[in-house]
């Protein structure tokens, strides 16, 4: 069946998530870390800070990351993005993908540091290369937007696919759009519909609307 292909405006639709704010838990928690976690879970953030601060200063990655979360969200301390950058940076240097992602987001948004897309690119790439889906999606978005890199639709499609294969709904949607429009990939309407359908199955309203416009059902 012939149909008129709907146009997708990437600039108006593309967005990226900010910081990941879930706590980092070590594989084997020391008693003082566990005490800090228990305090955090009952929202006694001052007690959590008291337990985690010494561990963080001794190089404990989970405690460092969690201090970054607390400073970024003003839990038990005044909001301080510079302190958050400091603690995320220490964990990122140890190779932790989520900390690398958070540090990248702060450089991209100019939170606690001067906005710097080159540093944002460095850290998001390191996280993406470790297989972290949100970082893969953000890296694809940077190639679409030309932030820190020349616009490169082929590179964007590569990173969107890696994230989409892990079930990242935004990556699935935009990969579908790229196949529909032949951006960075050979134009393939069926492949585009495939990715829209996968995103729609996760409840993505944009993908459902695209399927409707394309005359496709959800089967």
Note down, in words, how this protein is organized.
The protein is mostly helical. It has a domain of 69 residues. It is built from twelve helices and no strands. The N terminus is likely disordered.
The best one-word shape is elongated
Intertermini distance: 17 Å
Number of β-strand runs: 0
Order of helices and strands: HHHHHHHHHHHH
Radius of gyration: 20 Å
The biggest sheet, with number of strands, parallel, antiparallel or mixed sense and barrel status, is: none
| Low-confidence regions | 1-15
Strand content: under 5%
Brief summary of the model shown:
This protein has a domain at 26-94. The chain has 12 helices and no strands.
Features:
disordered N terminus; mainly alpha; 219 residues; single chain
Secondary structure layout:
Elements: H1 10-13, H2 31-41, H3 45-57, H4 61-73, H5 81-93, H6 97-109, H7 117-129, H8 133-145, H9 153-165, H10 169-181, H11 189-201, H12 205-213
């Amino acid at each position: 069946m012939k149909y008129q292909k709907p146009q997708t405006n990437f600039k108006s639709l593309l967005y990226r998530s900010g910081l990941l704010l879930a706590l980092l838990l070590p594989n084997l928690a020391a008693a003082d870390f566990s005490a800090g976690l228990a305090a955090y879970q009952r929202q006694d953030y001052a007690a959590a800070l008291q337990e985690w601060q010494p561990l963080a200063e001794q190089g404990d990655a989970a405690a460092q990351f969690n201090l970054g979360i607390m400073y970024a969200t003003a839990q038990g301390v005044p909001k301080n993005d510079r302190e958050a950058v400091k603690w995320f940076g220490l964990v990122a240097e140890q190779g932790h993908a989520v900390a690398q992602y958070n540090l990248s987001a702060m450089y991209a948004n100019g939170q606690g540091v001067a906005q710097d897309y080159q540093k944002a690119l460095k850290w998001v790439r390191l996280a993406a290369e470790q297989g972290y889906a949100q970082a893969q999606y953000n890296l694809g978005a940077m190639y679409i937007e030309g932030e820190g890199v020349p616009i490169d639709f082929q590179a964007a499609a590569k990173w969107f696919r890696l994230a989409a294969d892990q079930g990242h709904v935004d990556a699935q949607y935009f990969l579908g759009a790229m196949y529909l429009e032949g951006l960075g990939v050979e134009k393939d309407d069926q492949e585009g519909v495939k990715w829209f359908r996968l995103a729609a199955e996760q409840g993505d309203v944009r993908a459902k609307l695209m399927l409707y416009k394309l005359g496709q059902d959800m089967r």
